[in-house]
Amino acid sequence: MEIEKLTILGFNEPSITMLLDILNSKGLYPSIEIINNLGLLPTKKYEHPKFNIEIINDMDINNKMVTLGVVKPKIRKIVSNVFEINKDTLLVNLISDNSDISQTVKLGRGIVVNTLVSIAGHTTIGDFVFINRNVSIGHHTVIGEYTTINPGVNIAGNVIIGEGCQIGIGANIIDGVKIGNNTIIGAGSLVTKDIPDNVVAYGNPCKIIRKNET
Q1: Rounded Cα–Cα distance for residues 211 and 214 (Å)
Q2: Which of 139, 137, 141, 164 is nearest to 153 (CA)?
Q3: Which residues on adjacent β-strands are paired with residue 113?
């Protein structure tokens, strides 16, 4: 993958640090252009010893290689809609060389995979999915677009996770479980049965706590 210049949409410092760390792990040092996050987060100067970084307000992403620099599913979706990302947008998948992904995995577009991630065969990862470090995903699993998987999550085989979900740090999801769209699974949860759309659930075993109204 040759990237001379990468445009990051949105400004979230931890996310951008992760993106730059992935590029560094691959020995890639493109010029970085960060488009300010539409007022969702404050503008600030961002520096890195190995990258030339410029923060701009230009909204034009035509003919630019782009990725999203925010973690929360709702904001990722807002940013992609505001910039009218479509099938012709030059979206970049940023995947750490220190992760292990089966050749039979189907990857969408605009995906971020941090270090020490394992994804087993015949799994499908949707567009704009964000997978943080030390995550294990089993075979024949489906992860819907805009979903965020936080560090230390273990997902067994034949799991279905809907669109726009957040899976909390250290959660464990057993074989065959289905998690609905826009659902939040709390940190450290053990998910042993299906969880519906639009709820917040956590615990061991994981139970529905309330509706997700965010």
Answers
A1: 9
A2: 137
A3: 95, 131
User: How would you write 86-149 as a 3-class SS string?
Assistant: CCCCEECCEECCCCEECCCCEECCCCEECCCCEECCCCEECCCCEECCCCEECCCCEECCCCEE
Kindly report the pTM of this predicted structure. Answer: 0.92
Q: Would the pLDDT of 10 be above 90?
A: no
pLDDT at residue 1 is higher than 80: no
Residues in the chain: 214
**Is 140 one of the annotated active-site residues of the chain?**
yes
Burial of 207 from C-beta contacts in 10 A (0-12 / 13-18 / 19+): middle
Banded pLDDT at 106 (limits 50, 70, 90): very high
Angstrom distance (rounded) from CA 8 to CA 67: 5
- Given the residues 48, 122, 139, 140, the one annotated as active site: 140
Beta bridge partners of residue 93, listed in sequence order:
none
CA angle 32, 33, 39 (to 5 degrees): 135
| Alpha carbon distance 152, 135 (integer Å) | 5
Q: Which two tokens stand for residue 6?
A: 């990468």
- pLDDT tens-place string over residues 137-193: 999 999 999 999 999 999 999 999 999 999 999 999 999 999 999 999 999 999 999
The domains of the chain, with CATH numbers, are: 5-91 (3.40.50), 94-205 (2.160.10.10)
